[in-house]
Amino acid sequence: MPEEIVPLISSSVAGPLGVRHLPRLWLKILLYAIGRLPEGYRHGAGGFDELLTDSLGIDNAALIAYIQTERPAYLQLEAWVQQHARNLTPESVAAFNHKIITRDLSADMANERRERFRIADPTFAHGVSLNDLDDWDQAHRRLTNPAAKFPAG
Predict the structure, then answer these.
(1) Tens of pLDDT along 12-68?
(2) 79-87 long-range CB contacts below 8 Å, 24 or more apart?
């Protein structure tokens, strides 16, 4: 079985199109398509993934199918998004990016991650930061104990 790869691109990252989370979404779906995405990672459904497609007017199923079947390079994906997004304006991109940067995780998920990472502040729920910590933790555990099987946080 091929080695799983933790998608270490943060949701805060944007490509030339300026859409945050798009590079991460592309990588997660691509990793899933080739059987290398660790168990427990979303890859197109729910969370920030669907927030992106809903906000920009992209058919979620079509995006997933395109990446899984065509396996495009990242800039090819951006070209596809430009052709298929129904709401790709500077204003919609800015509004979406603001949502990504400011969105908190659900209370349950934030609490689990604060406990796991020993974050004492009970109000800290910043989604991108807690997701990044989870990715870094997953990568560290896999690199330092490659024989073990780890579910995504």
Answers:
(1) 999 999 999 999 999 999 999 999 999 989 999 999 999 999 999 999 999 999 999
(2) 81/17, 81/19, 81/22, 81/56, 82/17, 84/58, 84/59, 85/56, 85/57, 85/58, 86/56, 86/57, 86/58, 87/55, 87/56, 87/57
